[in-house]
């Protein structure tokens, strides 16, 4: 069994937290190439609690196209994660553990979406939590090895103007 130290555990935790921070930061700045680089080759996206339907099996590039289409006509977005929990096996002196290849992450999330020209007001706000699964990019990867393999948004509430998320040309929204 390969040694998985407390230092390895702490580095994995911070790398996972950094991945989520980057994901939200890059989405809000519409840096789609950077967003795509954070996904595993295959990813399951689940917005069923907010949009209905079924979870989608996709890849990072295709998911970025979906998010870009949803957000490109907005003036501003801000996604904030809090209450972060990372589920990794924690090694101790008397209980060695194997280096994990998967990890789970949950957090509370709050999102504000703004389109100043929306009829009825410029803001819609939603909150809930994310349940995210990660895979290690390769068994020997160094540096920042964690990629998103599943992303589930569990909606707590939505308030504000749903016209904000309607495409101004087609008048079709996603809520």
The CATH class label is Alpha Beta
* CATH topological fold name: Nuclear Transport Factor 2, Chain: A
Percent strand? 35-45%
Mean residue pLDDT: 93
Molecular structure report:
With 175 residues, the chain is α+β, with helices and mostly antiparallel strands. The chain has a single domain, classed as Nuclear Transport Factor 2, Chain: A. The protein contains four helices and six strands, in the order H-H-E-H-E-H-E-E-E-E. A six-stranded mixed sheet has the order 2-1-6-5-4-3. The radius of gyration is 18 Å and the shape is elongated. The model has no long low-confidence stretch (mean pLDDT 93). It holds the Pfam family SnoaL_4. This is SnoaL-like domain-containing protein. InterPro entries: NTF2-like_dom_sf (IPR032710), SnoaL-like (IPR037401). It comes from Mycena albidolilacea.
What's this entry about, in short?
By secondary structure, the chain is of the alpha+beta class. The protein has helices at residues 6-28, 32-36, 48-51, 60-71, and strands spanning 39-46, 56-58, 76-87, 102-114, 123-136, 146-160.
Defining traits:
alpha+beta; Nuclear Transport Factor 2, Chain: A; 37% strand; elongated
